[in-house]
Amino acid sequence: MSVSNKVDSGSQGTPGAGHRSVIGAGGVETASEILNRIFSDASGSSAGAEMADLTARYQALQKATFPQPEQTRFIAVANQKGGVGKTTTTVNLASAFAEFGSQVLVIDMDPQGNASTALGVPHETGIQSTYDVLEGRHGIEEVKVASPGFETLEVVPSSIDLSGAELEVADMPERNQLLKKALTDFLRGSKKHYDYILVDCPPSLGLLVLNAMCSVNEVLIPVQAEYYALEGLQQLLHTIGLVQQSYNPYLVISTMLLTMYDKRTLLSKEVFDQVREHYPEIVLNTTIPRSVKISEAPSFQQSVITYDPRGAGAISYEEAALEIAQRSKWVLKHIANRKQGE
Ligand SMILES: Nc1ncnc2c1ncn2[C@@H]1O[C@H](COP(=O)(O)OP(=O)(O)OP(=O)(O)O)[C@@H](O)[C@H]1O
Ligand SMILES: [Mg+2]
Questions:
Q1: Is 64 domain-assigned?
Q2: Mind listing the pLDDT tens digit for each residue in 89-98?
């Protein structure tokens, strides 16, 4: 129970209602207004109201119908800016999709292997990994492993060896298409249908990211709610434009997701408003809050979905996953139209 609840249950969002004024009949502030002022954050919501809101959102998610996409959605999670939440988003969306019954494959394209860690799969040097897949030594079928958290979630782990791949494949004629080829071969031979294939990209615009963008139809851009967010986007959009021109004309930027959103700050709101103004069709209404549980989860080799299932982080990523799923028809149609040259 929140402090404000203990003192006065009327302080949750209905300032003034049914309470005597502290100052007297002609006073300006009622008891509940004072409590609300003291215990509310800058956004005006009290801790009690926040907990009630979280419970309601959790219950709504339990009741929600989660549509599966009619075709596989191939999504690269990319932003050349470091630390904006690419891996966190990949891991938690993948887990949320799997929790809602989707078949999911995560491809870790980052030599740091953070997605592999968070999904609880080994990624030490020497294991079979994305590195072997790109260089053609093993197929995805041989390299993928099950994530312990969810039955329908598999991972192609990366290892630090992958950092050598960019140089090693630099002279290959099809060096941008290595992942696409491996993925096409794998899916051709696979009996399993995947609803979502997510590729976690490293923070660069090098060959690994090019390979990711050539093998998917969609880019999901996590945007950290901070001052320079939009400036960094220009360079990323330019690169995506080049990929569309030269290698993958069907690539669409389908989704932007605001991460590390702090609703108590005006800055977060301003960044969200700006991104919405510039990219109204692709920004999700859901934002991901800054949350200690989200950042703690990987050290337990878990997503926040299993680590803190009723917390704000898990609920927000599940809401984002639901929103992405509900947009499947629209996105897949958009991609199909591009393929038909419209
Ligand atoms: N919503 C959040 N709340 C709190 N911490 C977060 C949140 N999202 C990400 N983090 C933390 O921020 C750091 C960077 O996140 P993450 O690794 O997902 O970013 P990234 O874009 O994948 O980074 P890189 O560019 O290095 O691959 C991590 O320590 C992560 O735990
Ligand atoms: Mg990362």
A1: no
A2: 999 999 999 9
